[in-house]
């Protein structure tokens, strides 16, 4: 099977999608559509065999493709998904699939009418750092988990192009929040009881560049997601990615997308004996409660290393197209993520937590 695809939107991620479609035996990229002539010129130079179009209607009129990857600015997704559905094409849409739950529902109605496949490029479900934490969660490596912290900090305050315009779907909640929330919901299989969010425009006029989100689940897990693009630092890297997982049998920390970190357990906890000053001071350190455990009490293990890569998204996709597997990313899941994002905005506005499911 060699399915013919078109990529709509040939920017940062669209370029990658063309290469991906050409690299899989199941697919080819035969057309690209972009409203920017310079981008089309680039396609013509790099891939003379690919047909180029400057609008999606023409693409659907003139090209016989089986499917599309929609990789245009966020505010274009709705219109392009509806057009692709009406043209009877398989659809992969970039994240965030839509700007609102209501828009997504309209898109889904068209997709169902057309009977085409529809999924979303939430490929960060295959990030190694996330998979390592998910393995720890699934295997209960630190016991009953009460907190998961997922954070991402950028140092130079730089948001670019349309990402700084609200109307185009800019802002960090749409850009990264959608991945970070998706990872947590995909991992924590429980009813989400409440959502709290603090969302700020620290240096950007129109859009958010910092957020902290707290998700409280029925299974007693609390997830905290924090992102800032303007966390200035003198460190050499341009970003920091961190995870912390706390359970009643130990803790896990993981840093960077290609993660390094440890799982730390103790052989014996400092016992809490009321009035027993000796026991407390036996733990040395700056304060008694936060004292360092005595030597020999900690067991330290490497975090699990999971063999995966973002490209696994497409491996699943092509198996699913052939009916051999289910699509990993399902529309009700991305709808739930969008609903959480809407609850985040409500919480940020009211400064209160929002009841969820
Ligand atoms: N899954 C991921 O990890 C990931 C990473 C980056 C971007 N994205 C998503 O991909 C999409 C594009 O982001 P980007 O960073 O590549 O942006 P970009 O600005 O680099 O590219 C977008 C391209 O779409 C074109 N475009 C805009 N409207 C169009 C229309 N109606 N028809 C055809 N082309 C149109 C623009 O001219 C531009 O060339 C966004 O939805 C973004 O959230 C996803």
TrEMBL record:
What is the protein name given in its UniProt record? Predicted dehydrogenase
Q: Give the originating organism.
A: Propionispora vibrioides
Q: Which GO terms describe its molecular function?
A: nucleotide binding
Instruction: Enumerate the PANTHER family for this protein.
Output: CONSERVED EXPRESSED OXIDOREDUCTASE (EUROFUNG) (PTHR43708), OXIDOREDUCTASE (PTHR43708:SF8)
Q: Which InterPro entries match?
A: Gfo/Idh/MocA-like_OxRdtase_N, Gfo/Idh/MocA_oxidoreduct, GFO_IDH_MocA-like_dom, NAD(P)-bd_dom_sf
Q: What phylogenetic lineage does the species belong to?
A: Bacteria, Bacillati, Bacillota, Negativicutes, Selenomonadales
Which Gene3D superfamilies did the record assign? Answer: Dihydrodipicolinate Reductase, domain 2, NAD(P)-binding Rossmann-like Domain
Residues annotated as domain GFO/IDH/MocA-like oxidoreductase: 130-252
- Annotated Gfo/Idh/MocA-like oxidoreductase N-terminal domain ranges read 3-121
The highest taxon in the source lineage is Bacteria
């Amino acid at each position: 099977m060699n399915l013919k695809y078109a990529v709509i939107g040939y920017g940062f991620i669209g370029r990658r999608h063309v290469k991906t479609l050409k690299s899989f035996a199941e697919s080819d990229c035969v057309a690209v559509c972009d409203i920017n002539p310079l981008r089309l010129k680039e396609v013509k130079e790099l891939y003379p065999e690919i047909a180029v179009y400057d609008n999606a209607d023409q693409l659907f009129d003139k090209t016989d493709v089986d499917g599309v990857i929609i990789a245009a600015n966020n505010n274009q997704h709705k219109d392009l998904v509806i057009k692709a559905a009406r043209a009877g094409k398989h659809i992969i849409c970039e994240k965030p699939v839509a700007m609102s739950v209501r828009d997504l529902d309209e898109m889904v109605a068209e997709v169902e009418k057309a009977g085409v496949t529809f999924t979303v490029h939430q490929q960060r479900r295959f990030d190694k750092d996330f998979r390592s934490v998910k393995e720890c969660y699934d295997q209960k490596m630190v016991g009953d988990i009460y907190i998961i912290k997922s954070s991402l900090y950028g140092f130079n305050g730089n948001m670019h192009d349309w990402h700084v315009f609200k109307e185009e779907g800019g802002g960090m909640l749409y850009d990264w929040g959608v991945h970070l929330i998706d990872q947590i919901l995909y991992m924590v299989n429980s009813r989400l009881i409440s959502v709290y969010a603090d969302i700020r425009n620290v240096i950007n006029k129109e859009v958010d560049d910092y957020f902290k989100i707290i998700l409280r689940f029925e299974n007693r897990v609390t997830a905290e997601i924090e992102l800032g693009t303007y966390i200035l630092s003198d460190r050499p890297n341009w970003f920091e990615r961190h995870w912390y997982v706390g359970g009643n049998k130990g803790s896990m920390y993981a840093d960077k997308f290609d993660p390094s970190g440890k799982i730390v357990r103790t052989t014996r906890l400092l016992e809490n004996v009321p009035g027993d000053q000796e026991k407390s001071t036996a733990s040395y350190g700056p304060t008694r409660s936060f004292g360092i455990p005595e030597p020999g009490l900690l067991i330290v293990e490497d975090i699990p290393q999971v063999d995966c890569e973002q490209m696994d998204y497409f491996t699943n996709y092509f198996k699913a197209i052939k009916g051999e597997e289910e699509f990993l990313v399902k529309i009700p899941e991305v709808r739930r993520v969008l609903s959480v994002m809407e609850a985040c905005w409500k919480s940020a506005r009211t400064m209160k937590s929002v009841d969820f499911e």
